[in-house]
Amino acid sequence: MEATIDKETLRQELNTPYEVSQEAIDFYQKNGYVKLRQVLSPAVLDYYGAIITELVFRLNTLIKPMEERTTYERAFLQIMNLWVDDEQAREFVFSRRLAKVATDLMGVQGVRIYHDQALYKEPSGGITPWHADQFYWPLASPNTVTVWIPLQATPMEMGPLAFAEGSQHVELGRDVEISDESEKVLAGELQKQNFSVHDTPFDLGEVSYHAGWTFHRAGPNVSDRARKVMTMIYMDKDQIITQPRNKFQEADHAKWLNNAPIGGTPQDELNPILFSY
Length: 277
Fold this sequence. Notes:
The chain is α+β, with helices and mostly antiparallel strands. It has 9 helices and 11 strands. The protein has one domain (23-259): Jelly Rolls, CATH 2.60.120. The chain is globular, with a radius of gyration of 18 Å.
C-alpha cells in the first residue's frame, strides 16, 4: 500500500504547478533559454529515470563501436517518443508541471507536445555540435521550446548543455544541420558576433528550457558514467504546419506530425495539448 501512496505522490508532483518568476520569463525572452532549479525532486527523477533508462537500452539500435560512429552518432543514443511505448514514460512526458512552464516562458495560451526524446551521452561520447533544433521542424512560429532534464547531477565532465545567449534573434546558420560543419561554422560565426556562451553544470533537479532557434551545444562526456537526459519539445498549441524546407523537415512532417495538412494545426492524436489556460 505504501508504494502506491508514493507513486501517487510522484504523479501529483508532475502535475503540480511550478511558479515561474517574471524575472525567469524575461530572461528566457531575451536570451532564448533559462535554467530553473529544483523543478523536479530526486524521488521523481529516480523513479521515472529508471523507467526511461530501461526503455533507452531496450529500444536502442546503435551498437557500433564508438570509433566507427559519425560525429552525430558519437554525441548520444537518441530514443524518441517514449510516451507511445510506455504508460509510465507517458506520465512523465505529459507532466502538466513541465508543460505549464513552457507555456509561461513563451507567453502563449497553451502547448502541444511535438515529440519527446531521451539523449544518453555514453562514457567517451563526443561533443554535440552547435545547432538550432528548429532547422528540423516544419513549423511556422518560433514559439517552440525544449525542456532538457538531466536525470542525474551533470558536472562539466559529463557534457552539460551550453547556450549562445540571444542567438534565437539572428538569422544565422538556419540552414545548417547538426554536424562537424555546423560546429565549425557556427562556433566561428557566434564568436565573430560576440555572443556570450553560457556553459555551466546542472544540479540534480535543475532543468533548462531553450527556444527552437537558440543555438546550443554540449561537450564530450569524459566521465565514467552515462549522461542521462530526457527532453520534451513543446509548441504553441496554435502552431501552424509549414511546407517542409529540407529533407529532415519532410521526414519530421511524416513521423511527428502524421502528415497533417500544410497550413493547418497539428492533430490531437499524435500532438495532444498538454497544458492550456
